[in-house]
Every structure is written in structure tokens, then in C-alpha cells.
Amino acid sequence: MQRRRAFHDYEDLALHYEKRPSLWIEPIGDWGAGWVDLVEIPTPNEVNDNIVSFWRPKEPLRAGQEYHFTYRMYWGWDAPFPTPLARIGATRVGSVVDNNDARFFAIDFMGTPFEHLPKDTHFHVTPKTSAGKIQNVVVEPNPAINGIRTTFEFVPGDSKVADLSAVLETDSGPISEQWLYRWTP
């Protein structure tokens, strides 16, 4: 779902990405095991829409076999079903002072949980990575969004790609959606 809806997020006078609706697909019935692939297609310019997704059944489809997949489509500005989880409000990536081998990440969590949790709630985040290491994790209130900001440094080492993830938690368990980020040099 596209969450950025302000002109200044894109600054595009011709294509107005901030006005484009998102499409949510709700599978109906039993589709069996599988996953959704998200693909970024290389393109020489920005006018070609180049992000697509598709369902991939775990078992390969067989030639000559008939398959039925029923689904419902929801066009709109946000997910059709509200979530009680905190959402990722922003991700910022930058350099680390005095360490050219590391990248600095700042992730803002915002939304419903912060309207109901006591002010003295203890929040923590344990970022994970498939390669390299994470260090200097900080979790602090972000009063500008009535939410939480976490920051950390990612040191990739010799890695050429790393999948990073994080979930905001209280002592009672997770309260946010999962943040996912694919890092490449």
C-alpha cells in the first residue's frame, strides 16, 4: 500500500504519484501454500510503472491443468481493514559519523497503540539482519508523531546484500507491523 500522500513526497508535476490509489487483493477460498513475489523491473525512466506483485503457489502449476483463484479487489488510499498495530511512519538511512563502513537507520513507529498505552510503557526493538551486524540500538519517544523512533547502525562487512527487519515490542510482546528492508551497497 502506498502510504505517502503529500505532493512534497514525490514533487512530480506530471505523474502525481501522491494521487494514485493502491490496490489490496483479498484471496477468497483456499489457495494452498505459497507466497507473494514483489518485483522491481528495471526501467530507463520514471514514467514506466515498474513495481508488480504476483501469487506464486508453492507447488508449480502443471501444463494442461485447470486452476481457479477467486479474489476481491479494494482500490483506495489505505488498507481496507484497520490494524491495531503500530505502523511504520518513516524510514531514514544515512551515514555514520566516524565510520564509513556503517549505515545509520532511523525508523518511526506511529498509530493506534500509542493512543492507549500508559506513558510509562517500556518499548524495545531487536533489529535483525541476514548478514553483517547491528549495533548501537536506541529506542526513544517521538512526540512529533506521538510515536516511537528507533535508531541503529548497520555494519555490512563484506556482504553484498542483507535483509534487515525489526518489530516494536513492549514487555507484553509485539505491537507493530514488521519493518523489512533490503540493503545493497
The number of domains is 2
Helical content stands at under 10%
List the secondary-structure elements in sequence, H or E. EEEEEEHEEEEEEEE
**Uncertain stretches of 5 or more adjacent residues:** none
Q: How would you portray this structure in words?
A:
- The chain has 185 residues and is an all-beta fold.
- The chain folds into 2 domains: 7-76, no CATH class; 87-183, Immunoglobulin-like, CATH 2.60.40.
- Helix content is 2%, strand content 48%.
Summary of the model, kept short:
The chain has one helix spanning 113-116, and strands spanning 22-28, 34-40, 51-57, 70-76, 87-96, 99-110, 124-125, 128-129, 133-142, 147-155, 162-166, 168-170, 173-174, 179-183. With 185 residues, it is mainly β. The chain has 2 domains: 7-76, no CATH class; 87-183, Immunoglobulins (Immunoglobulin-like), CATH 2.60.40.
Features:
14 strands, mainly beta, four-stranded antiparallel β-sheet, 1 helix, 2 domains
Write the layout of secondary structure elements.
Elements: E1 22-28, E2 34-40, E3 51-57, E4 70-76, E5 87-96, E6 99-110, H1 113-116, E7 124-125, E8 128-129, E9 133-142, E10 147-155, E11 162-166, E12 168-170, E13 173-174, E14 179-183
Antiparallel strand pairs: 1-4, 2-3, 5-6, 6-10, 7-12, 8-11, 9-10, 11-14, 12-13
